[in-house]
Design goal:
The protein is of the alpha+beta class. The protein has nine helices and three strands; from the N terminus they run βββααααααααα. The protein is elongated, with a radius of gyration of 24 Å.
């Protein structure tokens, strides 16, 4: 059993934290830059309030951002893995025939949920992430970013190129759309 005792003195603006483990008691002080977080923890605040308190500290905010970037990189690596091939990897006849934005969205939700949520937040935070059919632009953006990460992640760019070719788009427009240099 773990119990936490948070006490603070307003006059000196420091927080002393005592954590009682089964094996003993550990004491320490919360850094001066984190008084809001200490108060939020002491009050048993909602997660949203705790998250806001964390983001008030520049050092803690940077650590959280670095962690989120690390998680996103791992998700992209998982999507590009050859051990568990992605639906987005190299176009085959079967994949082209069974292509749908919904299948791309579901794969993003399953294998890269943080990347998917970040793209949705960039576009429209109120948009539901549970319905990938409404998000073909997000699926397309994720696919283009993944193609930059790994050139074999080419199903969506191949489908879009096929659509443009079927629509009699000129070669010059098609080439300029897919040149990322």
């Amino acid at each position: 059993m773990v119990s936490v005792d948070l006490s603070y003195e307003v006059l000196y603006l420091f927080f002393k934290v005592s954590v009682i483990y089964e094996s003993g008691k550990k004491c320490g002080e919360i850094p001066k830059e984190l008084p809001r977080l200490g108060k939020a923890l002491a009050r048993g605040s909602q997660y949203k309030n705790l998250a806001e308190a964390v983001m008030q500290s520049p050092n803690l905010k940077k650590a959280v951002e670095n962690h989120l970037c690390s998680v996103t990189a791992k998700e992209c690596k998982k999507l590009c893995s050859t051990k568990d091939p992605s639906f987005l990897r190299a176009p085959t006849k079967d994949r082209l025939m069974n292509f749908s934005w919904e299948s791309v969205g579901k794969e993003l939700q399953n294998k890269a949920p943080l990347l998917h949520r970040c793209l949705i937040a960039a576009v429209n935070p109120s948009m539901s992430s549970s319905c990938p059919v409404r998000n073909p632009g997000i699926c397309m953006a994720a696919s283009i970013l993944l193609k930059l990460h790994d050139k074999s992640m080419s199903l969506v760019p191949y489908v879009i190129s096929s659509i443009l070719k079927t629509g009699k788009t000129s070669k010059k427009v098609t080439i300029s759309l897919w040149t990322f240099k």
